[in-house]
Each structure stands twice: as structure tokens, then as C-alpha cells.
């Protein structure tokens, strides 16, 4: 049975499960209070999953993964194909049996309280698995019934409004666009009002406009207090939405920290100079800035200088440029983005993984 006394500070109820004909609720904490702000809502410790028989040739899909996902965060889980992201989500959802380690959701261990833990999350799969001749309102009502929600507890119209589908509530699903179907998957996962929503590649295969509509939906849910765990291949998406980011590769966590710290720690700025003439050799005064000189196909000459903003100020570089007596037509400045950081971390992880196999 689900112990309703396990609740933390109640806000709005999370889904129930049908047990002996009654609805047993797990209460949802207020993720926005100062008290809960730094308290993890998901704790993963030493989680390991090995497919097949363990042995010298078996490579784990997850290798002692440890993560703590803060309450109320919009948490991005990044990694290349085969990194272990889907395996992690499937273990949380009870679809895959772990080899070792532990996972707790809202303080409930998935082994000791599997039904409670599963009731605390909603999972939006990557694949669109909706019936063609069902209406959105009917789908959400049926899903609410599966969770054992009474009529008075159902939020069908509210959820359809949040996801921008209220005006399509009575249309057949086959008549919806691809983006609308993806939003309906999100709505379906919200039926039991889980405190945690897991989005597995939610914008895969949709155009830019529909992607941004989904972003708006995700932001609105997070603003209302839902903790979001987002897996994505779109680094622009993670940089736009997430406040915490973990990178996983070869089944191991490469990094796990808030986005601003991650970008600052590995951040580099680039000062690109459009020059009147080619220079050879490059002045010695510019050597600390790892200069890169190139002449492009159109004949334009460019010099790129690299510097870490937490160590070097732009003014120092401008002084060095003056001392080098360069003839500059124009200059632009660029910053490291999440893609640069991601590629850097994955390359390092690949090297370490290769060394472990030697």
C-alpha cells in the first residue's frame, strides 16, 4: 500500500494508484520553498546496469552512476547515442531492472516502494505511441482512470490548456500535427500530477517553430513547480532551457553541475580580427592567446585569439593588439557555448574509456 504519511509539505496531490478499490495518494512537496530548494528530489547512487552475463567482455550500460537532481530544477541529461541515458530513464520508470545501486524518487526507493516511486514521475517517451481514432480529452480521461483518479480529481481541461491543446480536445488524434501529438504525450504524462516529469528527446523530429512551442510548455510546467528531467541531442535546447546539466558517456557521469558554472569553468572567449593584410610571423606579444591565422577563400585575412575570461581581461588583449601594430578592419567576439563544452567533455571521456580498456 502507498503510505500517504510519507508526504512532505503538501501542495497538490500526485497520482494515486488503485489499491483494493481505493485511491492512495502521494502528496507533492512545494518545490519552490527555500526549505526544499537544495533538497534533491531524485537521488541515484552507484547505479550500474550490465546487459548479458557479467564478465571480462561485458561492458556496462551504466557504470556506478551517482546523481542528485534538485527539486524544482530543469535538469538536462546529455550524452551521445549509447551513452546510457535511456537505460537510466527506464530504470527510474520500472521498465528495466538494474544490476546494482539505488534510485530514490521523492525519498522513495524504487526497490522497496516501486509503486509509490513510479507514481511520483511521469515519463514522456521519444516515440509517439498514440491511437489514431481517440480524442485528446478521451485519452486523458482514460489515463486518469488507469491511475485510479476520481472524477473530482481529474484535471483534463486544465492540462489541455497548459499544453495548448484545449481547442483540439474533441478532435481525432490522427488530425493533429506532429508537434501537437508531442504536446499530447506531455499532457498524458501530467495526468496524475507527478512532481517529476521525464522528457526523453521531446523535440526529436519536429521543426523549429514547434520545438519552441514545446519549450514554452516545458517552461510553464517548471514555473508551476514541476521538476523536469530532460534528455536531448539538441545542445541549443539544453542551453536554452536547463539550469543544471549532467553529461553521461560510456555509462559514466562526466560532469554534473549548474549550467552557468559549467560554461564558466570550461569557457573560452574568441576575439576574431579582420585584418588589412596577412601577417607572418605572428607577433610574439600575441602568443599567449593561442593565435590562429587564416586567409579565407574570398581573400579576407583573419586572426583569432583565444582567452579564458576568468583569467584574462579583454582590455589586456586590446593592449597587446596595439603593441603588435596590427591593421584591423573589424573585430568580433564569441563565447564558448554548450556544444563546445559538450564536445570537450565527451572527447576527454572517450580517451579515459579507451585507457581503461587497455
UniProtKB/TrEMBL annotation:
Residues 19-34 have a biased composition (Basic and acidic residues). InterPro entries: AAA+_ATPase, ABC_transporter-like_ATP-bd, ABC_transporter-like_CS, ABC_transporter_ATP-binding, P-loop_NTPase. Residues 1-34 are annotated as: Disordered. The keyword Transport applies. Residues 1-14 have a biased composition (Polar residues). GO terms for molecular function: ATP binding; ATP hydrolysis activity. Residues 42-275 form the ABC transporter domain. Transmembrane segments: none annotated. Gene3D superfamilies: P-loop containing nucleotide triphosphate hydrolases. Keywords: ATP-binding, Nodulation, Nucleotide-binding, Transport. It comes from the Bacteria. SMART domains: AAA. Belongs to the ABC transporter superfamily. PANTHER family: ABC TRANSPORTER ATP-BINDING PROTEIN, ABC TRANSPORTER ATP-BINDING PROTEIN NATA. This is ABC-2 type transport system ATP-binding protein.
Amino acid at each position: 500500500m502507498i503510505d500517504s504519511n510519507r508526504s512532505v509539505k503538501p501542495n497538490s496531490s500526485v497520482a494515486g494508484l488503485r489499491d483494493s478499490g481505493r485511491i492512495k495518494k502521494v502528496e507533492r512537496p512545494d518545490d519552490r520553498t527555500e526549505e526544499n530548494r537544495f533538497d534533491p528530489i531524485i537521488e541515484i547512487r552507484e547505479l550500474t546496469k550490465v546487459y548479458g552475463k557479467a564478465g571480462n567482455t561485458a561492458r556496462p550500460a551504466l557504470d556506478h552512476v551517482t546523481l542528485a537532481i534538485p527539486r524544482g530544477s530543469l535538469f538536462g541529461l546529455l550524452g551521445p547515442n549509447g551513452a546510457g541515458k535511456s537505460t537510466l530513464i527506464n530504470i527510474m520508470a520500472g521498465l528495466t531492472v538494474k544490476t546494482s545501486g539505488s534510485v530514490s524518487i521523492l525519498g522513495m526507493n524504487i526497490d522497496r516502494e516501486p509503486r509509490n516511486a513510479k507514481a511520483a514521475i511521469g515519463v514522456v517517451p521519444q516515440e509517439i505511441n498514440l491511437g489514431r481514432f481517440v480524442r485528446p480529452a478521451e485519452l486523458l480521461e482514460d489515463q486518469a482512470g488507469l491511475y485510479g483518479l476520481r472524477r473530482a480529481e481529474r484535471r483534463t481541461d486544465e492540462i489541455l490548456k497548459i499544453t495548448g491543446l484545449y481547442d483540439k480536445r474533441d478532435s481525432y488524434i490522427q488530425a493533429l500535427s506532429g508537434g501537437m501529438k508531442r504536446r499530447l504525450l506531455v499532457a498524458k504524462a501530467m495526468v496524475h500530477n507527478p512532481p517529476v516529469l521525464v522528457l526523453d528527446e521531446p523535440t526529436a523530429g519536429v521543426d523549429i517553430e514547434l520545438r519552441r512551442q514545446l519549450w514554452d510548455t516545458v517552461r510553464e510546467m517548471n514555473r508551476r513547480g514541476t521538476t523536469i528531467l530532460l534528455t536531448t541531442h539538441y545542445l541549443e535546447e539544453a542551453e536554452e532551457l536547463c539550469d543544471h546539466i549532467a553529461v553521461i558517456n560510456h555509462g559514466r557521469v562526466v560532469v554534473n553541475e549548474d549550467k552557468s558554472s559549467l560554461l564558466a569553468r570550461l569557457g573560452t572567449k574568441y576575439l576574431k580580427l579582420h585584418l588589412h593584410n596577412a601577417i607572418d610571423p605572428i607577433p610574439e606579444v600575441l602568443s599567449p592567446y593561442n593565435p590562429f591565422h587564416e586567409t579565407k577563400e574570398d581573400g579576407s585575412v583573419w586572426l583569432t585569439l583565444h582567452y579564458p575570461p576568468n583569467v584574462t581581461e579583454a582590455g589586456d588583449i586590446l593592449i597587446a593588439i596595439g603593441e603588435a601594430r596590427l591593421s584591423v578592419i573589424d573585430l568580433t567576439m564569441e563565447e564558448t557555448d554548450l556544444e563546445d563544452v559538450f564536445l570537450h567533455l565527451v572527447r576527454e571521456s572517450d580517451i579515459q574509456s579507451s585507457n581503461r580498456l587497455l
